[in-house]
Specification:
The structure is a single chain. By secondary structure, the chain is mostly beta strands. 12% of the residues lie in helices and 41% in strands. The chain is built from one helix and nine strands. The strands form two sheets. Strands 1-3-8-5-6 form a five-stranded mixed beta sheet, with no helix packed on it. A four-stranded antiparallel beta sheet has the order 2-9-4-7, with no helix packed on it.
Length: 145
């Protein structure tokens, strides 16, 4: 009898996990600047996530909450060349830049993005032909002189 109950519980748990959607692949989570995931603490190193379809995008934000300027490095290793990494600034004054695109095909990166205290940098990851394969995101901030 105990084995039968254990088996039923195990099957129920497997079914719940098998049909659940990942938080990072779901629409509505990290899908806009307003719902961007905070990149804290840094380094945000080698996080593996995925884009569910061509209308999905993942947004992240790093805000320099220190009293010194930071130099930001961000990279995405993508499963195919349809992925893009874009970035934009939000300055202390409130002005926001437009999106600009990182270079590369399956390895996309921004180097030496300088952020003054109080400034934010947004990252947008999207794909025109996504697979359910994972992409790797790495973000590192260093103090600058």
């Amino acid at each position: 009898m105990k084995f039968k109950k254990l088996f039923i519980v195990a099957v129920a748990m497997i079914c719940m996990m098998a049909f659940g959607q990942s938080a990072f692949g779901a629409h509505g989570i990290y899908d806009s600047k307003e719902t961007a995931g905070m990149l804290f603490p840094l380094p945000f190193d080698d996080r593996q996530l995925y884009i569910s379809d061509s209308s999905d995008a993942d947004w992240y934000v790093y805000t320099n909450n220190t009293s010194t300027p930071k130099s930001l490095y961000a990279s995405v290793t993508a499963p195919n060349a349809s992925y893009s990494l874009e970035g934009s600034f939000k300055y202390v004054s409130g002005f926001e830049s437009g999106l600009f695109r990182a270079n590369g095909l399956t390895f996309l990166s921004f180097n030496n993005i300088r952020l003054l205290p109080g400034e934010s940098f947004y990252l947008k990851i999207s794909a025109s032909d996504p697979t359910m394969d994972l992409y790797n995101l790495t973000v590192i901030a260093n103090e600058t002189i």
